[in-house]
Every structure is written in structure tokens, then in C-alpha cells.
Specification:
A: 738 residues, alpha+beta, Phosphoribosyl-aminoimidazole Synthetase, Chain A, domain 2, 60s Ribosomal Protein L30, Chain: A, 3 domains, seven-stranded mixed sheet, 25 helices, 28 strands, B: Rossmann fold, globular
Chain lengths: 738, 234
């Protein structure tokens, strides 16, 4: 922190100097506070932008890519979907309930301010080891409750998500929220102030001291003193948010809303300067018009407050009344705080006296920081490790894995979320590899979020590409064609060259995969400074991906449950000895290291295409991708969901010289398990062969046990009910409810 | 023949209910803002689910004092069908149109899942198209759905055959395991003594289209079918 002025700022001396040069004079305190908020890592991406440029962002269906509040994708029939991902990591680590709740509030506003209705939420959560740590259990419980209370109340269903547990998140949990929106293409609104004379209207919650310095708080490492920074955590109000959602959509329908921006990180400063900069205009506001929660707020506090549930509307001159009548219907506080000007400056006045005037361009263009990047030593050490002893009792290994919190059923989480409201949720949590939402005109959209910090820690390049691959495989499994994705990149302090190397490698992995598969990135977010100050270590690199895919016909929708006695079980893809970061190595053997799964892009594309075609031709009844826990866990999950067993000859799994535990538990990508009946198995086999994709019939569905043999020798046989009990009771047991 | 779907600030199943009435049941239904003071011309009312007034104080209590409730009470008294779903049930209880109270779930957690319901009474106009003890599958999604009533009043409910729906297992038994929220006697829905006002915690509007059901069912329709049938006869 620099105290060269009478206020505290996080800007470096060098940045203050640059600001002075750009402005041609010394900024006053208010201006400096505005620059401080806008040039924070959180708002400016000053460290990450040079790296993020690698990601492909264009595609035939992309209407708006990164740089706006949400990505916009054309889904045909005159409709668009919007997609965005946000995190609220630092606030949730201090106040898990309020932090998680306001995280949802933020991402909902991003979707809303494009003029689209939020129709689904997903949560990607990362905590420490809940089996051992009461602190992590406390965080987990209250984060889930925060999401539940907020998401349920605003009436947006939470349809999917994922949870990962790893010791590295003990003091820095990750709380990511994804939101999907739906709207008519002609109702799209951008965060732009383009027309001189238009009115600037602030709607919703009053401005108070909560969330002061939220962005600079998010752009620092949490310390022991962070407890005292509770004022940097905003206060959630889902009821107000619900009214804002309805009022905003009703106001947009009136046709005179020409710009729309949510106020999140950086408050009014960020919201207004971004709209001015994008629209090529200026904005002048009068602070005495802003409705306040407490009277004695200083101009600086008003300009950087991150009080929740606020939106800024740019309304066509002369039509303010029509729009404001909508706010009055919903009894929402609002104030007309200023107007769009033709100068290009963001000017702030109090009772007519100008207190600040900065070109919006300066605020929006933080000086880029080119960070140093060095491959960490730990990575080299992790590659070569000794294989663990082959366990004698594979049944007990499988049962133990089913109870690992990373693999166990997340019913305890998703039953606390209303996943039905809006009556669009066709494939619900636990039913398939991705959620499937009903869209207008008889089409469907699949959505899934994925991350894997264990893989990314050992090998950020392959780990990150793997997360994207897993998200795509999950979409394919339910019958969808991947359309686009957003990413959330969560790392430690970027000033540490080793951390920055892991960040660069992860982005390179995502970029290579998305270019190879022709899948555009339509937005995302970067969260640095996720560090454990007690242990003085960064979190494991944690990119989280949310991907969407389109399903044109209802009959393509596929779930993962085994369905009928006697059907064939088919595996697609080759299994390799890629045990690094696997749940089997880490949870069973306490072993971190080895080779993580790598993707052959050509094979991946062929595999995804042929599985998609098999589903569309109606050749398969159930599809499940193979990921955490390998083939065995995938089979067990299909048995549990279907309430039916299977007998499998694992010698038939395509592979080269693998040990039996590698065959069963490796997490190699580009693999699926499918169920096909006798009338379709020949055609399916022919299709696989013609597409040059490795596949094998490995067994049959039936009975009430999962039976695994190797060339006739029985390896294990476990009752499906025993697998189900281990899998479904593990998390409630951890949480002390059983 | 038309139905009013009341919108309170914070209602969030209003559009879902409207969709089912208009597009699935093919009956005319309008959204009516809670400030409206005249429901003449409507033949039935639905108070949809959601979080009216953000569940402040407790679920349904503020909405129970909205201007429109005077009209809802009039319609209830005049024998029109009045259906309260989830938060709508809470509002009907708070408005005194149904007896008992809806308390915080015994798990102290919000719960969203599909449940089995048994139609234990055909007394209400919303179930008289059904067979006694038939099973219906519908989802619940609530935080305050634990039905409670004083012992003496419970007996009266039984005596007057006002308990309409109970949470049951797949075999129709009202067991503890089948009770998702700790409701007294597994009660999921009750009606008034005349049978024209029904409140239930499960969501029939979420269970009226096969595509939305994990079981391929559309049992929620039967509640609306019975309601429409009654309006037609009336």
C-alpha cells in the first residue's frame, strides 16, 4: 500500500507516476481513488491480458465475446444465450454465507445487464479436506447455505456444479458461480453510453459503506488481519435482486434503455467509466443525487462503494418517465444521477462543483504489467515418482473411492438448491453428465462446469486442457454439440514468477484445445492472489471451465443410468497409464505426482464426434464420460443411477501393458462408457470402426452386483446397494448428519 | 372462463404457473399484480410459489396483507377455487384462509426433490377428479414447509376430511423416511371446510409435463384438471 497521498491506495509509485503523466497533472485524492479501483488487477486484468490474447474468441455463433459483462451466443430462432462466470473467493473465505450469496448476485447482474433473463446457475466449489478439517466443513456448509438462500429466493434454478476438496484450499476456498441467460436477440443491451444527452439512472439498493475497497481487497493475498476487512464484503439482498431482475427486463421491453451496466467491483467508478469508454462518450454525474444508506459518505466512498443490488441505466432523453414508472411499480429506489456528455471524460460533481474529471480512456487502460515466468522446481520433482504397491483387495479400494468426497454423491449440496424453478430443467442434478435446459421452440441447451486442480498442479498445460475436454465430454454425453465456453482462472500471486508460469501454461493448454476443437472462448475471469498466508503457498492452479452445447431434438437427450438387463456395455477410447493427479493415487495412496492425462486432439475430435453421432442415430441408451476415479467409478455411477448391476471383463478394455489398478482407475481423457441393446450393437460397432475410434464391448448390464473379471478370473463383485450407500452417505456423514 | 395468477413482489413461480394454465391446460390465465383490488371477472385464483417479500419475518406473512388479498378472501367465501402452491400455501395460512402453520423444515435446510404424494381426501375440488389413495409424483422446493397444527385442530381436520395430500413412500405408506420436512402426520396439503381452497407445498406446475419429470409422469395436471372441471360445472 502506498500512503504518498492523504488516502490509502494499492497503486505502486510507478503507476501513480504513469497516471500523472497520462493526465498531464497530479490527480487529486478522489481521482486517485478512482484510478486505484479501476487499475486494480481485479478490474483491469493488467497482468493477465497479454496471456489471455491466445484464446480464440470468434465463432459462427458468437455475437459478443470477452470484454463485456457476458458472452452472447446465437442459438437460432431469434434467441440468444448469455454466459458468464464469476468468483467470490476472498469474501467467502471470511464470510462464507454472505460472500457466496453476493457472488451469485454479481453474476446474475452480469447476465441481466445484457438484457437477458438469468435461467440457470451452476456452482464450482473448492474447499480443504472436509474429512479432517472442521474449518473447511464450516466453510462448505455456509457457502452452500449462502448459495441456497440467495439463488432460491431470486428464482433462478441452480442446475449443476461440481465440488473439489484439497488441502490447498483450507484457508482460501474457491467459490465460482456460472450464470446462463436467455433473451430475444433484438432486446440485447450493451454497457455503452453512446448518445450525448441520454440520462444516467441509478436503480436499486442504496449506496453505503459495504464493499469499500472490495476490488483492491480481491487483488491482495488474504492475511490474518483479513477478518477485520469484513467491510470489504458486501451485504446480499436477494429480494431486492429479484425486483431488479423483473424491473430491468420490463424496462428493457419498453425500448428506450440504450445502455445497461451492473455495479460490481469498483462500484460507480468502474460502471460509469466502462460505459463511457465503450460508447466513446463522457458521463457527468452529480453525487448529491445518489440515494445513500448513510448520510455522511464522502465522495470517494460513494464512487468506490460496492454496495450490492445496483444497476445503472442509460435511458434515451425524453423517455425517462416511461422507464422510471417501471421502477415505481416495483417500489425500487432510483435516482437520475447525470447525463451522457460528448467530452469523453468521467466528471464527478457535488452540488455543481466539479471534484473530478478524468478521461474514461485513462481509467480503462491500466498500464499492462509483463510478468516474469519461471517453471517451478516442484513440477520437475513430481514427474518421476515410484508406482505404489499393487493392492491385493480391489473391492475395498473401489468402495473407499466411492466414499471419497471428491467422487461421492453431491446430493447433500444440490438438494439445498431449487433446481426446478423456471420449469426448464430437463436433465437434473445427478441424472446425467451435464444439465439440460429446455429452450423456446423445442430445442435444448446443455451446460456443465468442470475443474481439476490436482491435474493442473502437476501439469498446468495438460491439466487445463483436460478440464476443457471434460466439460466438452460431459456435453457430448447428454447429446449436445459444444458451442462455446467461459473460463475462470484462479491462481496465486502473479508477482511470483512460478505462479505466473502455471497461469501461462494453463492458458496455453486451454488455447490449444479450443483452437483444435474450434470452440470459442466467449468470456471469463481471472482471480489472482489466492494464497494460504499461514503456509505461505499458493492454491493449486485452478482453472474452471463452463461450457454450453445445443441439442436440437428431444430424442437426443441422454442420461447416464444403465437401463435394461442384457444390454451391452461399450467403452470408447484407449486407457493409458496416466495416473498423475488421479483420485486413486491421491486418495488411496496419498501420492501426488506422475504423468497426468494428455489429449491427442485428433483422437479427441474423432471420439467426440462419433459418440455424438451414435446418440443422434439412437444407437445408445446411456452415456457417461470417464473422468475422476477412472473406468470403475464411471461404471459404478451408471449402476447406481440405474439401480442395476453389470458384469464386466476388464481384459477387454483397450490398453497396452497396463497394471490392473492402472486399467481400472486411470483418468485418461477421450473415453466414454455407453449402453447399447442387441438390435443396435452391430451398427454401433460398425460406426466406431468406420470412424477409426478405439472401442470394445466389455460386458453386459444386469443383476444386482457390479462384477469385474479379468479373462474369466473374478476380480471383484460388489452389491450395487453397497456402492450406492458408500457413495451417497459419505458427505452427509462428513457433515455430521448421520 | 379465466384464472388469475397473483404476482407479489418476489413471486417466482408466477410465469411457470401461467405457462401451465395457458399452454398445457389451454385455459385463459392472466398475471395480476398484487396492488390490483378487483378480481371480478375471474373464475379462479392461483397464488404461485416463490419468496414473496423475500420471506421477511416469515414466509407469506407480508403478502397476506397485500391489497389483493381482500379480493382473494371474497372469492374464497363465494366458493371460487383458490389454489396456493408452496409460498401461496404459506400466504393462505397467514391470511387465515387455511388453518395451521408452516414452520422451518426439521432438517433446518432448504429441500428440493421429487416426492410421492397420496391423495387421502377427495373432498377438495382440486382432487375430486382423482381416486382416493392414488399416488402423485411432484417436486417440492422449500425451506419452511413443516406443517404444524394443534392436536385438537388436527383432529378437526381429520373429522372434516380436510387433509388432502400426504407425503408417502412408493407403496403409499406415510412413513418418517417419506416425510421430507417433518410435517405433522406427513401432511403436504390441506383444504378449507368447503373444499374450494387448497394449499399444498409440492409444485403441481412443475409436474405437468412429461419432459420435466424424471419418471416421465405428468401427475401435477390432475390438480389443474379438477380445478378446471369444477369451474366448468359451477
Amino acid at each position: 500500500m502506498v500512503v504518498s497521498h492523504s488516502i490509502f491506495v494499492d497503486l505502486t509509485e510507478d503507476e501513480i507516476d504513469k497516471a500523472r503523466k497520462m493526465l498531464g497533472r497530479k490527480p487529486n485524492d478522489l481521482e486517485l481513488a478512482m484510478i486505484d479501483a479501476e487499475w486494480s488487477e481485479h478490474c483491469s486484468y493488467k497482468s493477465s491480458i497479454p496471456i489471455l490474447k491466445q484464446l480464440p474468441t470468434e465463432g459462427p455463433r458468437v455475437i459478443i465475446g470477452p470484454g463485456y459483462d457476458a458472452g452472447v451466443v446465437d442459438i437460432g430462432d431469434g434467441y440468444v444465450v448469455t454466459l458468464h462466470i464469476e468468483s467470490h473467493n476472498h469474501p467467502s473465505a471470511i464470510d462464507p454465507y454472505g460472500g457466496a450469496a453476493t457472488g451469485i448476485g454479481g453474476v446474475l447482474r452480469d447476465i441481466l445487464c445484457m438484457g437477458t433473463r438469468p435461467i440457470a446457475l451452476l456452482d464450482s466449489l473448492r474447499f480443504g479436506n472436509i474429512e479432517d478439517s472442521s474449518h473447511s466443513r464450516w466453510l462448505f456448509k455456509h457457502v452452500v447455505r449462502g448459495i441456497s438462500d440467495y439463488g432460491n429466493c431470486v428464482g433462478v434454478p441452480t442446475v449443476s456444479g461440481e465440488v473439489e476438496f484439497d488441502e490447498c484450499f483450507e484457508r482460501n476456498c474457491l467459490v465460482d458461480v456460472v450464470c446462463l441467460g436467455l433473451g430475444r436477440i433484438e432486446n440485447l443491451v450493451l454497457a455503452e453510453a453512446k448518445h450525448h444527452g441520454d440520462s444516467v439512472i441509478l436503480v436499486g439498493g442504496s449506496t453505503g459503506r459495504d464493499g469499500i475497497h472490495g476490488v483492491t481487497f480481491a487483488s491482495r493475498v488474504l492475511t490474518g488481519k483479513s477478518e477485520t476487512e469484513r467491510s470489504a464484503v458486501q451485504i446480499p439482498d436477494p429480494f431486492m435482486k429479484k425486483l431488479i431482475i423483473e424491473a430491468t427486463l420490463e424496462a428493457v421491453e419498453k425500448g428506450h434503455v440504450r445502455g445497461l451496466k451492473d455495479l460490481g467491483g469498483g462500484g460507480l467508478t468502474t460502471g460509469l467509466s466502462e460505459m463511457a469508454e465503450k460508447g466513446g462518450c463522457g458521463i457527468e454525474i452529480e453525487l448529491s443525487k445518489v440515494h445513500l444508506r448513510e448520510e455522511d459518505l464522502s465522495p470517494i466512498e460513494i464512487m468506490i462503494s460496492e454496495s450490492q443490488e445496483r444497476m445503472v441505466f442509460i435511458v434515451e432523453q425524453g423517455h425517462e418517465g416511461e422507464v422510471c414508472r417501471v421502477f415505481e411499480k416495483y417500489e425500487l429506489p432510483y435516482s437520475i444521477i447525470g447525463k451522457v456528455t460528448d467530452g469523453g471524460n468521467l466528471a464527478v460533481k457535488v452540488k455543481g462543483v466539479e471534484l473530478a474529471s478524468i478521461p474514461a480512456k485513462i481509467l480503462a487502460k491500466a498500464p499492462i504489467i509483463h510478468r516474469r515466468s519461471i517453471e517451478p522446481d516442484y513440477i520437475k520433482n513430481l514427474r518421476e515418482i515410484r508406482k505404489p504397491e499393487l493392492p491385493s483387495d480391489l473391492s475395498s479400494i473401489l468402495l473407499k473411492l466411492m466414499g471419497s468426497p471428491n467422487i461421492a454423491s453431491k446430493r447433500w449440496v444440490y438438494e439445498q438448491y431449487d433446481h426446478e424453478v423456471g420449469i426448464r430443467t430437463v436433465v437434473k442434478p445427478g441424472q446425467g453428465d451435464a444439465a439440460v435446459m429446455r429452450l423456446p421452440k423445442g430445442s435444448f441447451l446443455a451446460i456443465k462446469a468442470d475443474g481439476d486442480s490436482k491435474h493442473c498442479y502437476i501439469d498446468p498445460y495438460n491439466g487445463a486442457a483436460g478440464c476443457l475436454s471434460e466439460a466438452c465430454r460431459n456435453l457430448i454425453s447428454v447429446g449436445a454439440e459444444p458451442l462455446a465456453f467461459v473460463d475462470h482462472l484462479q491462481f496465486g500471486d502473479p508477482g511470483n514468477p512460478e505462479v505466473f508460469w502455471t497461469f501461462s501454461e494453463a492458458v496455453r493448454g486451454l488455447a490449444d484445445y479450443s483452437r483444435a476443437m474450434g470452440l470459442p472462448c466467449v468470456g471469463g475471469k481471472v482471480s489472482f492472489y489466492n494464497e494460504d498466508k499461514v503456509k505461505n503457498t499458493a492454491i493449486k492452479p485452478s482453472p474452471v471451465i463452463a461450457a454450453i452445447g445445443r441439442i436440437d431434438e428431444e430424442r437426443w437427450i441422454t442420461t447416464m443410468d444403465f437401463k435394461d438387463e442384457g444390454d451391452y456395455v461399450v467403452i470408447v477410447g484407449e486407457t493409458r497409464s496416466e495416473m498423475g493427479g488421479s483420485e486413486y493415487y491421491e486418495y488411496i495412496h496419498g501420492l501426488v505426482g506422475g504423468t497426468v492425462p494428455q489429449i491427442d486432439f485428433l483422437k479427441e475430435e474423432k471420439t467426440l464426434n462419433v459418440v455424438k453421432d451414435a446418440i443422434r442415430k439412437g444407437l445408445v441408451k446411456a452415456v457417461h464420460d470417464i473422468s475422476k476415479g477412472g473406468v470403475m467409478v464411471a461404471l459404478a455411477e451408471m449402476c447406481i443411477s440405474g439401480g442395476i448391476g453389470a458384469s464386466i471383463d476388464c481384459s477387454k478394455i483397450p490398453s497396452h501393458d497396463l497394471r490392473i489398478d492402472e486399467l481400472l482407475f486411470s483418468e485418461t481423457h477421450s473415453r466414454f462408457i455407453m449402453e447399447a441393446d442387441g438390435t443396435h450393437i452391430d451398427e454401433l460397432s460398425r460406426m466406431m470402426r468406420d470412424s477409426d475410434v478405439v472401442f470394445s464391448v466389455i460386458g453386459r448390464v444386469g443383476g444386482d452386483e457390479l462384477e469385474i473379471s479379468y479373462k474369466g478370473d473374478k476380480l471383484m463383485s460388489i452389491m450395487v446397494s453397497d456402492l450406492r450407500d458408500r457413495w451417497s452417505l459419505s458427505i452427509p456423514r462428513c457433515m455430521g448428519e448421520l | 372462463m379465466k384464472v388469475a395468477v397473483i404476482q407479489f413482489p418476489g413471486s417466482n413461480c408466477d410465469l411457470d404457473t401461467l405457462h401451465v394454465l395457458n399452454d398445457i391446460m389451454k385455459i385463459r390465465a392472466d398475471l395480476v399484480w398484487h396492488r390490483c383490488e378487483d378480481l371480478s371477472g375471474y373464475d379462479g385464483v392461483v397464488l404461485p410459489g416463490g419468496f414473496s417479500y423475500g420471506d421477511r419475518l416469515r414466509g407469506g406473512i407480508i403478502a397476506a396483507h397485500s391489497p389483493i388479498m381482500r379480493e382473494v378472501k371474497r372469492m374464497a367465501k363465494d366458493g371460487y377455487p383458490v389454489l396456493g402452491i408452496c409460498n401461496g400455501f404459506q400466504i393462505l395460512v397467514e391470511a387465515g384462509l387455511l388453518s395451521g402453520a408452516l414452520l422451518r423444515n426439521s432438517s433446518l435446510k432448504f429441500v428440493c426433490k421429487w416426492v410421492n404424494l397420496s391423495v387421502v381426501s377427495l373432498r377438495s375440488i382440486f382432487t375430486n377428479d382423482l381416486k382416493r389413495y392414488s399416488l402423485l409424483k411432484m417436486p417440492i422446493a422449500h425451506n419452511e414447509g413443516r406443517y404444524f397444527i394443534e392436536e385438537g385442530d388436527l383432529k378437526e381436520l381429520y373429522d372434516m376430511d380436510q387433509i388432502v395430500l400426504k407425503y408417502v413412500d412408493g407403496d403409499g405408506r406415510a412413513t418418517d423416511e417419506a416425510n421430507p420436512n417433518g410435517s405433522m402426520d406427513n401432511i403436504a396439503g390441506i383444504c378449507n371446510t368447503e373444499g374450494n381452497v387448497l394449499g399444498l407445498m409440492p409444485h403441481p406446475e412443475r409436474a405437468s409435463e412429461r419432459i420435466l419429470s424424471p419418471f416421465g409422469s405428468d401427475d401435477g395436471r390432475s390438480i389443474f384438471t379438477s380445478m378446471i372441471e369444477y369451474m366448468r360445472r359451477r
